[in-house]
């Protein structure tokens, strides 16, 4: 009889092991892996670096729009800003893409474009549309956007690996992931 | 003689009121650009105002080479959108419309609010009227979806004047006496000659219009497939020009 009691205790203890190794502490799904989104991380300085390509880029998704004189700007949430030449509306077309990871919003005053890269306010000079570049930056303004910018969640629905809160996400790839987060 | 003075005064008031209805139609002469009603950034004067879900941020951008943060207020509103008009900020949140004075630009001050049931709500406004769309759904909240018209002449007490129910409306924009409202099945065009009583004139079918920016004689539309452009020389009759896709 005692033998069976020990066996019962041992079995109960080993079943507890399933509840420990998932960082979200979600017991039911730890051992499940599915095809989903996995975050790609970079250092803060790499994530916040601005670059520009003077040619049309395919949009990942479509976000807020902004009009200024002969141009229209469209946020590609979390990835950057598309620049559209609207001097002749019937021929309107994309002419460039500004990489601003973690971006969500835009405003313009006096030939300076104001946007956010995660929690930083970034001011861009677009007076030369062959060479849009960073003009100035104020770090850490938008505290809630640091880990809450559109790039913190993947571009599609489904399961994804929850991003950690100590690194900045710069993109997502499809991979085999634990079913820890879902949207 | 007294009667003549009275009519003269009334005429002046009407003219002034009508002029003030002319909102944001002409933009090419200004130094700032124009965002849509779903924007969370706005620049007015020397300040950038931004909202995230729980904070209103104020940044002095009078010197673009050296922006300076002047404030961050915590607000329990679940904020969605911000719209500026003269010395006022209209903030749309999931629980209501909040109106701030920026008479002291570095310190926005709450002066009025109009609460509503939980929903998402962008807003556009001028001196006397504000238009919000409320989208009630599982994400935004259970309020009745529709277009809500407020008298905001007394900003501390917005008065609901009219509600027009519609399915899942989203962004909206004003050009003179025309109001454009996006919803999941297309775009509705209203005459707002009587500001508190929008009259539906036309529906442009199509999927998922999210937001619009009336800019001079062009209506710039954020849709689910890219940006669509319409000619609004005739304000109440948008004419399709082009869809900008990849």
The count of helical stretches of chain B stands at 1
Tertiary shape of chain B: globular
Helix percent of chain B reads under 10%
Uncertain stretches of 5 or more adjacent residues of chain B: 9-29
- In whole angstroms, the N-to-C terminal distance of chain A is 50 Å
Task: Kindly describe this structure.
The complex is a heterodimer of chains A (183) and B (246). Chain A is mainly beta. Chain A has 2 helices and 13 strands; from the N terminus they run αβαββββββββββββ. Chain A has helices at 2-16, 44-47; strands at 33-42, 51-53, 65-68, 71-76, 80-85, 93-99, 106-109, 112-117, 120-125, 133-138, 159-160, 168-178, 181-182. With 246 residues, chain B is mostly beta strands. Chain B has one domain (2-245): 7 Propeller (Methylamine Dehydrogenase, Chain H). Helix content of chain B is 8%, strand content 50%. In chain B, the strands form 5 sheets. Chain B has a 4-stranded antiparallel beta sheet with strand order 2-3-4-5, with no helix packed on it. In chain B, a hairpin with a 2-residue loop joins β7 and β8. The N and C termini of chain B lie far apart (67 Å).
Brief rundown of the structure:
The complex is a heterodimer of chains A (183) and B (246). Chain A has helices at 2-16, 44-47; strands at 33-42, 51-53, 65-68, 71-76, 80-85, 93-99, 106-109, 112-117, 120-125, 133-138, 159-160, 168-178, 181-182. With 183 residues, chain A is mostly beta strands.
Features:
heterodimer; A: 183 residues; mainly beta; 4-stranded antiparallel sheet; 2 helices; 13 strands; elongated; B: 246 residues; Methylamine Dehydrogenase, Chain H; 1 helix; globular
Tell me the layout of helices and strands.
The complex is a heterodimer of chains A (183) and B (246).
Chain A: H1 2-16, E1 33-42, H2 44-47, E2 51-53, E3 65-68, E4 71-76, E5 80-85, E6 93-99, E7 106-109, E8 112-117, E9 120-125, E10 133-138, E11 159-160, E12 168-178, E13 181-182
Antiparallel strand pairs in A: 1-12, 2-6, 3-4, 4-5, 5-6, 7-8, 8-9, 9-10, 11-13
Chain B: H1 2-20, E1 34-35, E2 41-44, E3 47-51, E4 55-60, E5 68-74, E6 79-85, E7 88-93, E8 96-101, E9 109-115, E10 123-125, E11 129-134, E12 146-151, E13 159-165, E14 169-175, E15 178-183, E16 186-191, E17 199-205, E18 209-215, E19 218-223, E20 226-231, E21 239-244
Antiparallel strand pairs in B: 2-3, 3-4, 4-5, 6-7, 7-8, 8-9, 10-11, 11-12, 12-13, 14-15, 15-16, 16-17, 18-19, 19-20, 20-21
């Amino acid at each position: 009889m005692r033998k069976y009691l020990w066996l019962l205790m041992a079995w109960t203890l080993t079943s507890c092991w399933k509840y420990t190794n998932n960082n979200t502490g979600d017991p039911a799904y730890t051992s499940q892996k599915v095809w989903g989104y996995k975050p790609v991380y970079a250092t803060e300085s790499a994530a916040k670096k601005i670059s520009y390509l003077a040619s049309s880029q395919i949009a990942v998704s479509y976000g807020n729009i902004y009009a200024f004189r002969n141009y229209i700007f469209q946020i590609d949430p979390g990835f950057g800003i598309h620049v559209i030449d609207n001097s002749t509306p019937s021929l309107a077309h994309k002419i460039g893409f500004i990489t601003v990871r973690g971006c969500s919003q835009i405003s313009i005053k006096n030939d300076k474009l104001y946007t956010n890269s995660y929690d930083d306010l970034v001011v861009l000079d677009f007076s030369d549309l062959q060479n849009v570049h960073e003009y100035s930056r104020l770090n850490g303004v938008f505290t809630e956007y640091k880990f809450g910018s559109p790039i913190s969640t993947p571009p599609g629905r489904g399961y994804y690996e929850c991003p950690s809160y100590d690194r900045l996400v710069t993109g997502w790839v499809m991979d085999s992931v634990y079913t820890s987060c879902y949207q | 003689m007294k009667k003549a003075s009275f009519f003269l005064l009334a005429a002046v008031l009407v003219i002034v009121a009508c002029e003030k209805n002319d909102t944001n139609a002409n933009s090419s002469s200004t130094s700032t650009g124009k965002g849509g009603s779903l924007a969370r950034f706005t620049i007015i004067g020397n300040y950038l105002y931004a909202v995230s879900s729980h904070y209103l941020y104020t940044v002095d951008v009078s010197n673009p080479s050296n922006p300076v943060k002047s404030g961050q207020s915590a607000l329990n509103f679940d904020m969605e959108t911000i719209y500026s008009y003269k010395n006022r900020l209209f903030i749309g949140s999931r629980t209501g419309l909040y109106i701030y004075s920026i008479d002291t630009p570095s310190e926005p001050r709450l002066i009025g609010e109009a609460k509503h049931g939980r929903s998402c709500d962008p807003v556009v406004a001028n001196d006397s009227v504000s238009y919000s769309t409320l989208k009630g759904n599982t994400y935004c909240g259970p309020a009745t979806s529709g277009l809500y018209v407020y008298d905001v002449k007394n900003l501390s007490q917005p008065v609901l004047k009219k509600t027009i129910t519609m399915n899942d409306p989203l962004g909206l924009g004003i050009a003179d006496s025309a109001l454009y409202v996006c919803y999941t099945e297309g775009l509705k065009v209203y005459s707002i000659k009587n500001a508190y009583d929008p009259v539906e004139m036309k529906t442009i079918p199509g999927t998922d219009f999210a937001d619009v920016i009336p800019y001079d004689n062009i209506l710039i539309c954020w849709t689910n497939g890219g940006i669509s452009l319409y000619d609004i020389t005739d304000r109440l009759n948008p004419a399709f020009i082009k869809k900008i896709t990849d």
